[in-house]
Amino acid sequence: MRAFTCGVCGQLVFFDNTACLRCGSELGFDWAARTLRARPGDARCANRARIACNGLTARAGELCAACVLTRTRPNDADAAALVAWADAERAKRRLVYELGELELPIRPWTAGDGGLAFDLLSSAQQPVTTGHAGGVVTLDLAESDDAHRERMRVDMGEPYRTLLGHFRHEVGHYYFPVLVADEATLGRARAVFGDEREDYQAALDRHYASGPPAGWERDHVSAYATMHPAEDWAETFAHVLHLHDTLQTAAAYGLRVEGPAGRPDLHADPIDPEAGGLRTQLDDWLGLTYALNAINRSLGFEDLYPFVLSGPVVEKLAFVDELIARA
Questions:
Q1: Whole-structure pTM over 0.90, yes or no?
Q2: Is there a contact between 58 and 43 (Cβ–Cβ < 8 Å)?
Q3: Partners of 55 in the beta sheet?
Q4: Which of 124, 145, 249, 316 has the largest count of CB atoms under 10 Å?
Q5: Quick one: residue 276, left, alpha or beta (phi over 0 = left, psi -120 to 50 = alpha)?
Q6: CB 5 within 8 A of CB 11
C-alpha cells in the first residue's frame, strides 16, 4: 500500500479513511487516479452510508470499482451480517487496490461471460463454504469474527488466517487460467506445481485424513499447499501478494532495515520494474521480517511472519511473480 496525505492540511491519512482526523475534510478514493482526494467533488459510492466505503464513482448512486464486484451480500435487515460485510469489503478493497497496482486484469462477472465476482454470505443463515468456482469467490462472513477465525486457525493448524489472506488465496484460483493461458506456460506450471487435473476430492480426503507429508516445508509455502496442485498455486499466489503489499508499504513509509550483520537497506519499491524482480526483493523481505519478528517477540507476541521460504518455495514464488509481471 502506498502512503497518502490529506490534500488540505497534509496530514498522513490511510487508504480506508473517509475523513481527515486533523482538519475534518471528507476523503474519497479515486480508483482511476489511484489516490485519496480531499473534499472530492465526484459522486460517492452507493455503499458509503451502509459500510463506510470511501470509493468515488462517475455518477451518484453507482457502486465503486471494488463494491461492484460483490454479486451477493447480506440483506439490509440483518444487522449482525452487515457489520461482518463491512469488514469483508474493507479487506476486499485492499485486494482490489493491490490487483490494480500489479496491473492484473479485473473484469466484473456477468452471467454466461465470466469475469470476477464475490458472494459474501453469512453462515448464521445458511451453510457457507469459502472457496472459488467459475470466477465467483465465496466467503463465509463468520471469518470476520476474530474469535471464530482464531478458533479455525488453531483447529486447522494454520500459522496465519485473515480475511485478506482468504481473498488473496481464492482470487489466486481465479487468476490461474488468466495467467496460465497457453500450452507452454501450462506445461511449466505443471512441472512446478503438479497436474491441476488431479482428483480434487480424493486429494481433499487424503489431506484431512493424513495431514501434510513429513518434510512438507522443503517444497511448499504452507501445509495446506500440499493438498493439491491447485491449492499449491493459490497459496503461492497469495504469498506473492503478501510480499508485494508489505514491501510496498514498507518502502512507502521509508523503513530501513540493516540488521546486526549489515544486511542491505530495505529500499525497493516492488511495483518498480527496476527493483529487480522477486529474487532481489527477497533480500529486503528477509531483513524486514527478521526485524518485525524480533519486535513482536519483544512485545511477547508470536512471530508476525511465521513462514520459512526454502529454495523450492522461492522458485514457485518467482514463477508466479514472473507470470503476474508478464500479464
A1: yes
A2: yes
A3: 29
A4: 316
A5: left
A6: yes
Contact call for residues 237 and 320 (beta carbons, < 8 A): yes
Q: Look up residue 326 and give its amino acid.
A: R
How far apart, in whole angstroms, are the C-alpha atoms of residue 142 and residue 308?
29
Does residue 195 contact residue 229 with C-beta atoms inside 8 Å?
A: yes
Question: Residue 127 and residue 18: Cα distance in Å, rounded?
Answer: 34
Report residue 57 CA to chain centroid gap.
Answer: 23
C-alpha 146, offset from chain centre: 18
Question: Which of 35, 66, 33, 32 is CA-nearest to residue 48?
Answer: 66
